[in-house]
Design brief:
The chain is of the alpha/beta class. The chain has two domains: 3-236 and 306-334, Class I glutamine amidotransferase (GATase) domain (Rossmann fold, 3-Layer(aba) Sandwich), CATH 3.40.50; 240-302, no CATH class. 38% of the residues lie in helices and 20% in strands. It contains ten helices and ten strands. A ten-stranded mixed beta sheet has the order 1-3-2-4-5-10-9-8-6-7. Strand 9 (214-222) and strand 10 (225-230) form a beta hairpin. The longest helix is centred in the C-terminal third of the chain and has 27 residues, at 308-334. The protein is globular, with a radius of gyration of 21 Å. It starts with a strand and ends with a helix.
């Protein structure tokens, strides 16, 4: 069953949908989902497509109806804002709606304290809305850090170097979302982390972690919604880490960062790593932006999405969790004398 996108469909996905497959009513076994995409303009459309691909691949026979939103306050170019205006709905259309689930992405931070970001107030309101109006909420990378800061005051910690690459993690707790896995591989790309001891002290359950990669995924029920936090990026495409690595090299060559970026771990094969090491030597010897013309683009051919199985397993379990909890709620509401029916009768009398 294809992914169905409500409203105008971005061109990257327009040829893949089947409008006749859109579910007709909420009695069907389908999932309504909001994607609040806050990524910077350079990654905005890539992130759309990454989540479209992932959700489409895991849905199977579960129709997924997706609606796109984005935060106010995230800096945008004219091109980025035009894209949002054409394909995204405003947050003013979110507050009075319920969804089965929501996915909230991060963006590139500009302030050490996330509460000083211009979009913080809007993001905090989205978190509060999600607690009351969804079965489950996924927070990706920076959004995960912002979520625990907002609800529990958990501070993130700056790392000595960027946590960058594809890392293997071990399951550390039994949960519906991790039942089908023992180990997972996921890309990470971050300068900060939240730590297991702080999360445990505030009632979070860490699902996957490792010595090298730190905490990967963790969960906590907040009011009506199970909040699922990923410090990494299960949705990434095969070339996403390469694009970020090349971007960071460009920033170094333009003197926008002091150090040459570390090669992403567990991502390139030996031949690609050798080509990149040779390019690094040349760039360090003569750091000019036009050195990028000699970047070894051949490494693209070596890239594989080695985390695909882990990503589909976790997200398929997430969709099944949503359907199960929604069915349980419906069954409870149908029980004679249940609180829901008693409240309905009281309302009718009043």
């Amino acid at each position: 069953m294809p992914l169905i996108i409500e409203g105008r469909v971005p061109s990257s996905w327009a040829g893949k949908i089947n409008p006749s497959a859109a579910p007709g009513d909420k009695t069907a076994n389908w999932v309504s989902l909001a994607l609040i995409n806050n990524m910077p303009d350079a990654a905005l459309e890539d992130t759309e497509l990454q989540f479209f691909d992932l959700l489409d691949s895991v849905s199977g026979d579960i129709p997924v109806l997706l609606k796109l939103y984005s935060l106010t306050g995230v800096p945008r170019t004219d091109r980025g804002q035009r894209h949002l205006n054409e394909f995204y709905f405003g947050l003013d259309q979110l507050w009075d709606h319920r969804f089965d689930a929501v996915i909230i992405t991060g963006t590139e931070p500009r302030q050490p304290d996330l509460r000083q970001e211009p979009y913080w107030s809007a993001l905090a309101n989205v978190f509060d809305w999600a607690e009351r109006n969804t079965v489950s909420t996924v927070l990706s990378c920076l959004a995960a850090h912002a979520g625990v800061l907002h609800s529990d005051g958990i501070q993130r910690h700056r790392l000595s170097d960027k946590q960058f690459g594809v890392f293997e993690f071990t399951k550390t707790d039994e949960h519906e979302l991790s039942a089908a896995v023992e180990r997972v591989r996921f890309p990470h790309s971050r300068w900060n982390e939240v730590r297991a001891d702080a999360l445990a002290a505030c009632g979070y359950t860490v699902l996957t972690q490792s010595t090298e990669g730190g905490v990967d995924s963790f969960v906590k029920k907040k009011k009506q919604s199970l909040f699922v936090h990923f410090q990494g990026h299960p949705e990434y495409g095969a070339q996403t880490l390469l694009k970020e690595y090349r971007r960071d090299i460009k920033r170094f060559l333009r003197q926008e960062r002091e150090s040459y970026p570390t090669v992403p771990k567990g991502y390139f094969d030996a031949n690609a790593a050798a080509l990149l090491a040779k390019f690094q030597q040349a760039a360090l010897a003569d750091p000019r932006e036009d050195q990028l013309a000699c970047f070894p683009e051949a490494v693209v051919k070596t890239l594989q999405k080695t985390w695909h199985a882990s990503a589909t397993s976790m997200y398929r379990s997430w969709l099944q969790y949503i359907l199960t909890k929604r069915a349980e709620a419906a069954s409870f509401a149908a029980i004679p004398g249940s609180c829901a029916q008693i409240q309905q009768k009281r309302s009718a009398v009043l």
